[in-house]
Amino acid sequence: MPALSRRTFLTGSAALGAYGLGLGGASLYATASAATPITLEAKTANALLDGQHLTKGVMTYGLESASADPMPPTLRVKRGEPFAAKLVNRLDEPTTIHWHGLRIDNRMDGVPFLTQPYVYTGDSFDYAFTPPDAGTYWYHPHCNTLTQMGRGMTGLFIVENPDDPVFDAEIDINLRDWRLGSDGQFIEQFKPRDAAKNGTFGTVRGANWQVQPAFDAPAGGLVRVRLAATDVTRIYILKLDGAEAKIVALDGQPLAAPLALDQVTIGPGQRLDLVIRMPESEDQTVSLSDIRPSTAKVVATFRATGASLKRDLGEVRPLPANPWMPPDLKNAETIPLILSATAENAAKESFCGSLGYSFWAINKVPWPGDTSDPMAPLAELKRGRSYILNLENPTPHLHPIHLHGMNFQVIASNARAVAPLISDTYLVLPDEKVQLALVADNPGDWVLHCHIIEHQKTGMTSYIRVT
Ligand code: C2O
Ligand code: CU
User: Fold this and answer.
1) Domain co-membership, 294 together with 373
2) Which one of 12, 17, 34, 58 has the largest count of C-beta atoms within 10 Å of its C-beta?
3) Closest ligand to 449 CA?
4) 324 domain-assigned
5) Whether the CB of 119 sits within 6 Å of ligand 1
6) Is 352 in the same domain as 335?
7) What is the predicted pLDDT for the residue at 337?
8) Cα–Cα distance measured from residue 266 to residue 280, given in angstroms and rounded to the nearest whole number
9) Ligand 1 pocket, 97 CB below 6 A?
10) What is the full DSSP assignment across 143-210?
11) Among the atoms of ligand 1, which is closest to the Cα of residue 111?
12) Dmax of the chain from CA atoms?
């Protein structure tokens, strides 16, 4: 597959199918005929991340059919079709892959000790599953995650729905930063003082492993932009200038009615599908900025090319919904889930990336780190029954809480009007109490944690058991 330049122009959705390429990385279709697994190598590399220096010790995933692009490939599959990947570990530490947001078999979930053994250096693990839902997802390790993700191991996983409307182009954006010094080399990944607050931020802002990438898209066209916030810390407030857009999906799940984009907040782990109506004339540009906390930073720009396709944002229809079993709220059992700070005490030693501190807890219990002797589950759920996770955040910080293996529906919040969105990651505001309902339909032990990785790794992790 030819390595396309990132400044790629896609015309017509037919081209999308033919390429099977996401902008900014090699990607592929796993079709029925491709039941043969792809090989994903976890490995180190050098890469240009800040636009000036070659950063050493980058960690990434590569396909055998290696493109020159060091960014983890954007994997593309079709809903309902089998996917298989052999993870080969060429790092000098253990790793695993978690497929964030996909409702799949517990044995494929990638959590060391809880769902699978470590994949040691030189070893491999075969992942195989059939994604039940279409949408924008991502993949990353679940071992020594602050280092492995912080140094690069976050990739997009796109499940296409053949029934989706046709757009004039698609642009896929892996939104994440880097903690680099002025010489472009990695610096200390975290400061304990910050881990106990909002987390330690990167120093170089990025999108698709570039600083402010510029994408081309057809003038007057409707462009689908899939964004995944894969940073270990940063919460974004995204805003678009120079064009109108609609949000068609959040966290992979289609909105029942597309929403005009004003500004939208997404935390680590979350995804956003936008449809941008590109400006009329060639060379007009649109910019996507992050306006949190105050000074706006341009994340990426889009330049209109060619003669106007004269599309209209009003043509955008809802994406077809994913299968969803509505929870039985009348008979649902409530599970309290209180996020809190904890008295600082040392975490147990574990070589899967304990940060050596515990600052956070769920229901007063700080997760001791990934150990071969995991603690008891937070709750035991009966398969097929409905539950309400009653989340409370008495801390002054935001927490993107992610549940593995099952989706939930947002029912009510004391802090804001909520739409009945279906999701796997909810960004809990300070002092917010929110109810998330689900049907416990996927058996296994499912981790639940804050996706600010320093919070996750210093206590804000637990799991529920579905039997
Ligand atoms: Cu994005 Cu525990 O995962
Ligand atoms: Cu948190």
Assistant:
1) no
2) 58
3) 1
4) no
5) no
6) yes
7) 94
8) 29
9) no
10) SSHHHHHHTT--EEEEEE-TTSPP-SEEEEEEE--B-B-TTS-B--S--HHHHTTT-PPPSB--BTTB
11) 2
12) 62
pLDDT greater than 70 at residue 353 = no
Direct distance between the N- and C-terminal alpha carbons of the chain, in angstroms, rounded to an integer = 44
Ligand that lies nearest to the alpha carbon of residue 405, given by its number in the listed order: 1
Q: Is 100 in the pocket of ligand 1 (CB under 6 A)?
A: yes
Mean pLDDT taken over the chain = 89
What is the predicted pLDDT for the residue at 67?
Answer: 72
> Between 8 and 346, whose confidence is greater?
346
Residue 390 resides in a domain: yes
Q: Which of 131, 160, 189 is the last residue of a domain?
A: 160
Q: Rounded to whole angstroms, how far apart are CA atoms 64 and 56?
A: 21
Cβ of 457 closer than 6 Å to ligand 1, yes or no, is no
- The count of domains in the chain is 3
Rg (CA), the chain: 21
Closest Cα to atom 1, ligand 1: which residue? 100
pLDDT of residue 60: 98
Asked if 176 and 236 touch (Cβ cutoff 8 Å), the reply is no
Q: For residue 322, is it within any domain? A: no
Q: Is 205 in the pocket of ligand 1 (CB under 6 A)?
A: no
> From the CB of 6, is ligand 1 less than 6 Å away?
no
Query: Does the residue 323 lie in any domain?
Result: no
455: Cβ below 6 Å to ligand 1? no
Q: Is the CB of 447 under 6 A from ligand 1?
A: yes
pTM: 0.91
- Centre of ligand 1 to C-alpha 303, Å, is 33
CATH of the domain at 234: 2.60.40.420
Q: Does the pLDDT value for residue 250 go beyond 50?
A: yes
48 & 68 share domain: yes
Mean pLDDT comparison of 20-24, 98-102, 415-419, highest-scoring range: 98-102
Atom of ligand 1 nearest to the CA of 142: 2
Question: Of 134, 160, 186, which marks where a domain is finished?
Answer: 160
Please indicate, yes or no, whether residues 349 and 307 belong to a single structural domain of this protein: no
pLDDT digits (tens, 9 = 90+) for 132-174: 999 999 999 998 999 999 999 999 999 999 999 999 999 999 9
> Which residue's CA is minimally distant from atom 3 of ligand 1?
100
The span from the CA of 226 to the CA of 278, in Å, is 15
